[in-house]
């Protein structure tokens, strides 16, 4: 049985549905990341699960039990918000101890748990440190330890690393994943950062205007975005209208080979940048290399074709053209996705 189930949950603000008949299951020990643009309903989803927001229709179930009459503090869910809201007047240990104190855990046991949790989040011995003396990343860890302290059956994170700089975020996300795996925590996290979601999640849920646009493992969503919205949200810009049939897509960029078994008919296709190959072929698409940006292990090349939108190619360093050069492009079917 799923630990968390949303069954047709709708939340309206005036005429607008912030959540529109959302169905979602989160399994025991699974980490699910909800991803989507601003205003797509991510925070509302967390709030309705926590009991901070009333659902206009549908049900929220935890371990199969309808939560509609269960108040926030009895749901057994932990929440950690973006601005982590530590109590500034308490030291790090006092912050972590808060939930334990509320639950009447005795002092000795409390001190032991606080030390253990601070150790777990990589801040051993930091119990006496004033909140103001901690860096952003350290505060984030204290907030995490505080959320974990009451051993919630479901931990919910809202933009957990939102305010930290990129390097720190990338490090912490790996630590979090490792930590959740070790503890067997069930996690529902919300982020607008796809890199963070893909690094943290067993499964990602992409939201659009209160609905789930796609759900799948990070690899599934990355390899096969369900539609143009998801593809563009993931940062793929090589999307054009197409008519697909007989193993090719007819597009403004010419005929593009598609993988076997692709859906036929009118729609659109995505060509992932590594599938835009710069090579001399007689029937290739002639383009001008407008910009070339060095990206470490490859070069991102923006190409202007004779018609249609710009094309982005990802080419090995040795194949990078000169800016302004005329090149010929061929498409690799394995990097083409026919979108729904
Ligand atoms: N209390 C509220 N009153 C009225 N409208 C609200 C309220 N809370 C959220 N909304 C609206 O519901 C929609 C979804 O908001 P929500 O905060 O869930 O989006 P989000 O995906 O978390 O966005 P962000 O990434 O910007 O935090 C938005 O259109 C928002 O304006």
From TrEMBL:
Keywords on record: ATP-binding, Nucleotide-binding, Transport
Class of enzymatic activity (EC top level): translocase
GO molecular function terms attached to this record: ABC-type quaternary ammonium compound transporting activity; ATP binding; ATP hydrolysis activity
EC number: 7.6.2.9
Keyword Nuclease assigned: no
GO cellular component: ATP-binding cassette (ABC) transporter complex
SMART domains hit by this protein: AAA
Protein name per the record: ABC-type quaternary amine transporter
